[in-house]
Every structure is written in C-alpha cells, then in structure tokens.
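Protein in question reproduced for absentees:

***
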Amino acid sequence: MTVSKTFTKTESKSPLLVGAFIDEEVRIDPEIDGEINALVSEKLLDFKTGKVNKLYTFGKIPNQIIYIIGLGNKADYGYEALEECLAGVDYRLGKELIVDFDSFLGELEPGEVARRFVKAVADNNYVYDELKSEKTDNELDLKFDTEHEIEQAIEEAFNLSTAVANTRDLVNKPYNRLSAAELAEYAANLAESLADERVSWKILGKNEIKALGMNAFLGVNKGSDAEPKLIHLQYKGSDGEAIGLVGKGIMYDTGGYSLKTNMINMKSDMAGAAAALGAFEAAVKNNLKVNLQVVICATDNRVDGKALLPDDVLTAMNKKTIEIISTDGEGRLTLADAVCFAQKEGCKTVVDIATLTGACVVALGNHVTGLFGNCDEEVEKIMAASRKANEELWRLPINKSIREQVRSSRVADLKNSTGRAMGASGAAAFIEEFIESNTKWLHLDIAGTAFRTEPKHRYGGTGVPVNTLYHYLKDNESE
C-alpha cells in the first residue's frame, strides 16, 4: 500500500471516497449533489456506520465511481467510530482511491484522522499469501485531497502500519519457515535495514546463553534439535532510562511432555517476540526519542529423550530455582531469563509481551489483552496508549494468595504453574519473581488477541499490541 497527499482530485478518474453522516446533506460536487440527495430522501442510500454505497457518475465528474462511506450520526462520531466506518475500505474498491479527506473529519483533529485512516485501511488491506501459488493483487494507492497539513501524520502512520504488517507476517509463518535461527536472522536484517547508527544488535547462541546462566531458557530448549537464540536489539534514540520490550519467542509449542491435545496455530506462540520487533521498527523509523531495547529468548518447545520433565528443577539466571509442574508452562520460563537479561543490560522499565495463558482467553475473550503491572503510573500510561491504538486492555490482579502459590514448592523456590484457577495471574506472578524492586514492569498477556481464526478474511496474526506499544513509547519520549 502507498499513501500520498494530493490537491487534485478532479484530475483523476479513479474512485472517489467520501464520508457522509446520516444527519447531514451530502456535498460532493454541484454536478451530482442534487441526484445524490434525491436518492438519500428516497432511502436508496444508507449512511449507517461502515456502510459502503457505490455510485456511478456517468461522466458528470471526472471520477467514474463514488464510494460514499456511512459515518453514522455526527454526534456519535469519534476516532474509534472512524476506524469502524472504514472496515469495508481496501484494495477491492480499486487500485487507486482518491479520498475526500475533509468529509471524514467531523469535529476531529486532522492529523489524528489521517493517522487513524491510514492505520485502518492498511489493516483491512493486509493479505498473507506468501505460501500460496496464486497471489492476491492487493496493490492500493491512497491519495488524500485536503488543504490540511497531514504529511507528517501520514508518514508516521504508514511506518507504523508497515511494522504491524511485518509483525503479522512473522506470526503467520509456519514453523518450517520460521525457526529460532530464522527469527534471529530476520531481527539482524531488520536492524541493518534501518540504517541508523543509533541501532545495534547481537545474537547469542547456545554456548553464550549457557555462560550467562540462563538455564530456565535452556531447559525449554532441551527437547529440541534446533539451537536456541537470544536476540538483543538496541536503539539509542535518547539518553534517558532504557525501556525493554521482552517478547515471548516460542517458535512452536507442543506443550512438551505435558503434551497439548490441540496444537493447531501454535506457530503463533512467538507473537510477543514479533510484536516487540514491530514496535522497535516503528519507533526507529519514526525517530522516537527513546532509549529502547528488545530482548527475545527464541526456541521451540518439543519432545525427545532429553526434554524437560515435570518434577525437574531448573536454576534461572538470577539463581532462583524452579520446580517444573507443567512443561506446557514454558513461555514463562524463557521470559524469566529474558527479563533478567534486560535488567542486566540496564532496562529500568520492562514490558513483556506473551501469548501466555489460555486462562486469560477464558477471562477476557479474543478481543481484550490482559494487563498486569507493579507500577500504577506505568499501567495508566499503557492504558492511555491502548485507547489511542484502539486496542483494548484490561488490568488483572496479582494478589497475595497467588504469589504464595507460586512460592509453594516443597523442593525449589518457585513453581512454574499454579493450575487453571487464576491461571493468568499465576503466570504473571511467576514472572514478577524475576523483576527487581527498582524496575517498573508491565506484562501483556496476548493469548487471545494475537491470532484470529474467524472471520475468514481476518484469519491469522493481528499485530496486537504493536500499536499500543508504539503509542506507549511515544508517550515516554525524552524531552
């Protein structure tokens, strides 16, 4: 998808995209306004939210087709409503769309409308057909007709949307196309392609990981014949305190010896890692003034004669010992060592992102991300960011009783699983054990929101929560 700003809508024959409110007269061009409003009075056009009305102009104006997009009642119109209104706008309307930008404004701020518009259409326009023999031609060029200065907003949104699309591509790739080594190669290539001297990266292999004492991470890898990778990216966009994005990088999860009964779509268990890389890409491309690091412990969780067993005890990077109750509680083991590494590298704020628990899906469903944190101020910051991103978060508790359960092992310091009851909180409480007292910490459980199977055209990785992470980082920019 490409996006540009133009002042010459009358010079193109391409379809014209116009927004219309139920309670306002349509004004597009004097040559056709009368006929259109006559159709409205006869109730032959529908301006309910998101309704797409297709009209032919019969040569009365240069644009051969007009798509009038229903915006609903003006009093109810806001940024979230705008994104909902654009749900039917994508490449299927035409390869080039001329947008009558001001018709979508209502009383909203032009720059934010431009950002939301690009984000929503880019999301609609996404197609994953890398592995299909027949490709979808989803080429789309958006041209905005307006006198408002929105070029910077367009560029910012385009960079962010590109990062989200790349995130979705990663999540959608099957394991035989994206192993830990291949994710590490992608991360290194991404860092190099950004061509920014403030960006640095390193990839650590098994021996280097072992030397760091990351035995919780290595324990998950024991059953695999694929080498684990520790991915570490840095962006020195400011001299402020470092923010660490720690993404769960389980490239495929069988559950280990605590074998899953259904493994379909377990390729998406690395969605947290993909989101961290996507947020990093967007932050660098948009030149955010942040000191940012990404840490990913990448491995698959499989079964062989050397694999981790229930009852085993592992020693994490911070020397805490962990009794393995379930080998399907593997993500939190890798995250334990990953957050330790991030703090060792100087991160004073750590945000971990993980497809961590089915319990979170039971609690919040497939459209709300679970949020945990140890700092109310940071929780409110990321909640505010999620509202800007139109990605819903809901804060869940970590209380005394669940902490006691995590610490209730008779043979080690911690248990890696507390069972199904309050399971999302138990997983969060486990990770909290590896957070130092002076570190601000947020945990996003995206088990329900990272991957969709319905409806059909929305199948696959969603890119959640890249938009939220980006706005959170933007709100943390140094002066």
About this structure: The chain is about 35% helix and 20% strand. The chain has two domains: 2-146, 160-475.
